[in-house]
Amino acid sequence: MEKVTGIIERVIHRNGSGFIIFAVRDGHKVFPVTGEDQDLHEADFVECEGDWGEYKGAPQFKAKTIIPQIPSTTEAIIAYLASGRIKGISTVFANRLVKAFGKDVLHIIENEPHRLKEVQGFGAKRIRDLTEGLKEQIGYRSILLFLHSFGLSKHHIKRIYEFHGVSAVERIKEDPYQLCQQISGIGFGTADSIGLQMGIDPEHPSRIAAGIMHALNAEVNKTGNTGMPESDLAQKARSLLSSQRPVSEEKVIIGIAAATEKGEAVRFEVGDVEYIFPQHLHEAERGIALHLKRLLSIQSVADADEEALNELIDEVQKDFGLVLGEKQRTAVKMSLLSPVAIITGGPGTGKTTIMRVFLECCRRVLGLENLDILACAPTGKAAKRLSQASGLEALTMHRALKYNPVEGEFEYSSENPLPEAVIVIDESSMVDTQLCYWMIQAVATGARLIILGDVDQLASVGPGKVLADMIVSGVIPVTRLNEIRRQAAGSKIITNAHKINNGQMPELDNSDKNGDFWFFKGEKDEEIANTIISLVGRMSKYYNLDPFDDIQILTPQRMGVLGVYELNTRLQKLLNGKNLGTGIKLKQDNVDVEFCIGDKVMHIKNNRDLGVFNGETGRVINADKKSRILKVAYDDKNVEYAFAELEELRLCYAMTIHKSQGSEYRLVLMPCTTSHRNMLNRSLYYTGITRAKQLMGLVGMVKALQVAVNTTSSDKRLTGLLQHLTDEIPKVAV
């Protein structure tokens, strides 16, 4: 690549999405440059790196990077000062300044502004406007120059500037590791690269502290634990920090102690063993327990004698044309009598029926309207299903709490509780610790909270096992439903899911052409993958399914022939091949990926700046290759992604079974292979199969399915919630 420098003579075109064409003067030569807009203006002095090309027969420089420089020639300084961006400085005044001070003028303005009085026309106000304006303009360019040398993207540099302002370089030089906590998308690796290039001591306390917190947060996000033993943390942190030269164990132990003293991490005993927890997760687990204690301390307003309660339930089930089973009836009573109640059970066991009867009883006894009831779920798809089941306008939990991306916080909280008298949370097995805390703290004292979920599903993607801990604690009334209701017994999806959950092989007979569960045999991974791709095309036509909205491929792993990446590549070619080559290309997990208009995508990380949360799915509606900005349409919003933010997005024609939690699809296809042996367990397959609403196809090896059925989950998460619950709340009478 080549470098060119010069003054921007005029901006020819900018499209508003980050692409710019401008004319540069380098001595007597003027030529066009194209590239990514860096908030460029006429009279800016720029350094461009890229290659020469042609446009309509004339030379044109195609820049890979464009970095505004601090002007150094008298011509560039005059053009810059007179550009109109500094209040009160015209070409006349700019010439006077350069004539008086030459190339030192910028240094004089910044460091010796009193000397400007020597120049005609410079009184106190003009000097103040000049020094303040230049400080802001030169400050941003200094930040851009400083951080670009470390390989940071324009997006992250802009975020740093917005956070620190013109003092950013000074702040970063003091402690580059503070960026890990301050700027979304900048982790320890980036901050450490800056720090080590700056020559920071590998055993500097700031570096060790950042490495410890990175190791701790990486562990909880990877494993789903909410804490870890101190010895394990010390080992992982020391390994991370010893990339340049060995860091002593003593320094790391001192660093862990310092982190707990500063409140970044917390020591907490679970049983008789002390663990280290990130502060935000410790506070969330403790907060869940304290807020549940608050809610449970209020006697139920629906408290009534047994006879009156039975009469009410009889009346409602008669009006609904229902006959409740014994456990269903018990669950309705429990939900009416306790301020907080949990109902857990698999598909077809009647959770929805219980919810409908309970809500109608509340309407009749408490005189509630629909506006007094909040129905919510962790994801948009789960909320849609809850809407259909309840007849209410169900919301995602984030929308229910009214997240404000500008303020970066929720409108509803412990200080401003939700106004509803009854709150129903569905698909609670996939609610992680942090989301549960945000939700439960916002439930008003005196309100009723009903938690629905299937505890046998996979645990949440995020840290914690909230539903399981609540059930095991014994401090909240629980009804466990295990009887398949008559209307669901005819579905092989439901009966086979329950068989797998109980450690029994499912029925694999494909003889019923009108059935809803099939097993397609295959003995090699390539053969299994080919069958899945073929089935997507055939079944979408035969059953009149939309391959984007109605069909979902679920797989245990991300890598390999039957992993998410390779299946997505093949499915993208099958379903959106016409747009391949027109999108934005990047690497994810060292795999080449392209996002094109029309692609089905999933956001995989909570991003409060964008207002998008883990598990939300949408479709790409614009992919600008030049600016590398992608636009995605979600259910309730359109979101623009800068290139650096695309790491939080994934193609999702195929997704992991974990990522499918809370969703349902008309057709689910799932591989079954011994190459996934480390992931073969009944909880995973039970969760995957129960995502199928109408049709389910397992594709692969019977022996792999047998291994899954015989294997219980190894996901034994370490959390502090159970301890907090039993410490704070007395057990309920059984």
From TrEMBL:
Which keywords does the record carry? ATP-binding, DNA-binding, Helicase, Hydrolase, Isomerase, Nucleotide-binding
Query: What sequence ranges are listed for the domain ATP-dependent RecD2 DNA helicase-like helix-hairpin-helix?
Result: 137-226
Q: Per the UniProt entry, what are the Gene Ontology biological process annotations, in alphabetical order?
A: DNA recombination
ATP-dependent RecD2 DNA helicase SH3 domain ranges (all copies): 567-634
Task: Tell me which residues make up the UvrD-like helicase C-terminal domain.
Answer: 652-699
Reactions listed under catalytic activity: ATP + H2O = ADP + phosphate + H(+)
Give the family, as the similarity comment puts it: Belongs to the RecD family. RecD2 subfamily.
What is the role of this chain? Answer: DNA-dependent ATPase and ATP-dependent 5'-3' DNA helicase. Has no activity on blunt DNA or DNA with 3'-overhangs, requires at least 10 bases of 5'-ssDNA for helicase activity.
Q: What is this protein called?
A: ATP-dependent RecD2 DNA helicase
Classification of source organism = Bacteria, Pseudomonadati, Pseudomonadota, Gammaproteobacteria, Pseudomonadales
